[in-house]
């Protein structure tokens, strides 16, 4: 059935213009609706995730339901504070450098958490920052966390008081139809509409004017989104991917080495079988650390997925045949194949790819130039662990950079010399669950940030409001210009 975009988007615009979505009671009701979906329909969500991606209930709860429940509760707990205008006491004229020549006036507007300093020319006045919703926003999401990556931005959009079109990915069809059904039933469907379809629907949607487009997906489609948005001067957030490296040092304590190896195995294979934008893409380590590192990785892969991982319920499947072939093609190159030191088996029928470790595949092979997005883990050896800094700098900015090291000099160099959406030491993935830090990319991994208050801000315009009084009015600001005024 062809969706009537014209009338649906018109309805959303009318509802937004009515002011209904701006009411805090409406926002709270929608957030409670989301919470009820997550609670009432937990089993259905897990079933849909199992069918689309082979995710285990534990993984589904952890990555998609639990994180969303946390985010809705965080929005509910803080909404009042987020919505409140930041009252900036303006009766504090700026008395900093002030010249008697109007052309040299320094208008210093500085805001801190406490106050805005206004130029003395504006005295007396008060100012505040008032967050307002943007309008009708479009959220396009990807298939790998089809529930979580749809709901996380939706929470921010609703908390900020917008009307929303959500287009989930067609590659997770059970989740897409469950989102459509539950959001229709639990939320205000005059103001929140889920539109189901693939790239053709995405392209049709992009012809309309939205007030914000929040896109999660590939850089290729991100470019299309951005150029379509430019026609309407619509701001965009692009949550893209890329290759996320993990720098792995050696620790003096075997306990630390073991924990690092476990976290790496989890950060690579433990989320949707490596089909995760912040999953570890490849490892950089020093040559002499390689034997121990590979042995530890093998040990923990076996511990997590057993001797026959194809039978394991703890690892997701590859989403579809196209992505399965994309991944197996990465291994087709004979030189790449010969670099496999563990795993490598693939079963097209069950869309299973074994957790696989490769050592030093050629750096110009596709596995090292394209985002892997699957359970293949190249380990690249370097003469010195410090060489990892230049290795990373020579490549596009990752969405996430991980470094397992206690070497303070290396830590400092990674912080100051490399650029990435997030930099995390001695852990992987957990940044996604931290509401108090922004989540997003930089450079090729995208731009714009969200999660927690950052999501609210992403879908709001912070309007500067200044209230002036009539108490003082300076005569020399008005023409006619005279020599006398020049002397002042
Ligand atoms: P994709 O770009 O193929 O699709 C993303 C969404 O865009 C889907 O809903 C799809 O239907 C839609 N789409 C496809 N073609 C379109 C078009 N021409 N016009 C409008 N919409 C269109 O990406 P994907 O395969 O779903 O996701 C994989 C990529 O997403 C990876 O690169 C991954 O790293 C990235 N990703 C990033 C994040 C993040 O938070 N930064 C999260 C998950 C995935």
Automatic annotation (TrEMBL):
Active site: residue positions: 239, 277
Residue ranges constituting the Aldehyde dehydrogenase domain according to the UniProt record: 14-465
Short name of one Pfam family: Aldedh
Reactions that this protein is recorded to catalyse: an aldehyde + NAD(+) + H2O = a carboxylate + NADH + 2 H(+)
Transport listed as a keyword: no
GO terms (BP aspect): aldehyde metabolic process; response to abscisic acid
CC terms in the record's Gene Ontology section: cytoplasm
GO MF term list: aldehyde dehydrogenase (NAD+) activity
UniProt entry tagged with the keyword Heme: no
SUPFAM superfamilies assigned to the protein according to its UniProt record, in alphabetical order: ALDH-like
The entry's keywords: NAD, Oxidoreductase
Similarity-based family: Belongs to the aldehyde dehydrogenase family.
The protein's name: Aldehyde dehydrogenase
Natural source organism: Ambrosia artemisiifolia
């Amino acid at each position: 059935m062809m969706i009537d975009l014209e009338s649906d988007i018109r309805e959303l615009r009318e509802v937004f213009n009515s002011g209904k979505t701006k009411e805090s009671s409406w926002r709270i009701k929608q957030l409670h609706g989301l919470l009820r979906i997550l609670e009432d329909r937990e089993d259905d969500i897990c079933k849909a995730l199992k069918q689309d991606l082979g995710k285990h209930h534990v993984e589904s709860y952890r990555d998609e339901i639990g994180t969303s429940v946390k985010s809705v509760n965080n929005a509910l707990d803080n909404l009042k504070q987020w919505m409140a205008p930041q009252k900036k006491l303006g009766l504090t004229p700026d008395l900093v450098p002030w010249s008697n020549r109007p052309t040299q006036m320094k208008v210093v507007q500085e805001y801190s958490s406490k106050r805005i300093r206004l130029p003395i020319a504006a005295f007396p006045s008060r100012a505040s920052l008032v967050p307002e919703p943007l309008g009708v926003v479009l959220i396009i999401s990807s298939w790998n966390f089809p529930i979580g990556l749809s709901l996380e931005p939706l929470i921010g959009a609703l908390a900020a008081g917008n009307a929303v079109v959500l287009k989930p990915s067609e590659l997770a069809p059970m989740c897409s139809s469950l989102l459509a059904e539950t959001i229709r039933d639990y939320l205000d469907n005059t103001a929140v509409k889920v539109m189901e379809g693939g790239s053709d629907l995405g392209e049709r949607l992009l012809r309309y004017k939205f007030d914000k487009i929040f896109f999660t997906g590939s850089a290729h489609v991100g470019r299309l989104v951005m150029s379509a948005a430019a026609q309407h001067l619509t701001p965009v957030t692009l949550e893209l991917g890329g290759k996320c490296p993990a720098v792995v040092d050696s620790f003096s304590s075997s306990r630390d080495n073991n924990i690092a190896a476990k976290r790496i195995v989890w950060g690579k294979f433990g989320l949707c079988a490596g089909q995760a934008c912040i999953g570890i893409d490849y490892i950089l380590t020093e040559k002499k650390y390689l034997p121990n590192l590979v042995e530890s990785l093998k040990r923990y892969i076996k511990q997590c997925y057993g001797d026959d991982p194809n039978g394991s319920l703890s690892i997701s499947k590859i989403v579809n045949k196209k992505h399965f072939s994309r991944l197996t093609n990465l291994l087709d190159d004979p030189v790449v194949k010969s670099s496999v030191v563990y795993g490598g088996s693939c079963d097209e029928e069950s869309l299973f790819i074994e957790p696989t470790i490769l050592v030093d595949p050629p750096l110009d092979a596709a596995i090292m130039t394209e985002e892997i997005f699957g359970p293949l883990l190249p380990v690249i050896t370097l003469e010195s662990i410090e060489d990892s800094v230049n290795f990373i700098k020579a490549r596009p900015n990752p969405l996430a950079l991980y470094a397992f090291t206690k070497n303070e000099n290396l830590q400092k160099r990674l912080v100051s010399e490399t650029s990435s959406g997030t930099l995390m030491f001695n852990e992987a993935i957990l940044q996604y669950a931290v509401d108090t830090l922004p989540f997003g990319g930089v450079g090729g991994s995208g731009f714009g940030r969200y999660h927690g208050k950052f999501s609210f801000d992403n879908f709001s315009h912070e309007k500067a409001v200044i209230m002036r009084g009539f108490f003082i009015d300076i005569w020399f600001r008005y023409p006619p210009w005279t020599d006398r005024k020049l002397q002042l």
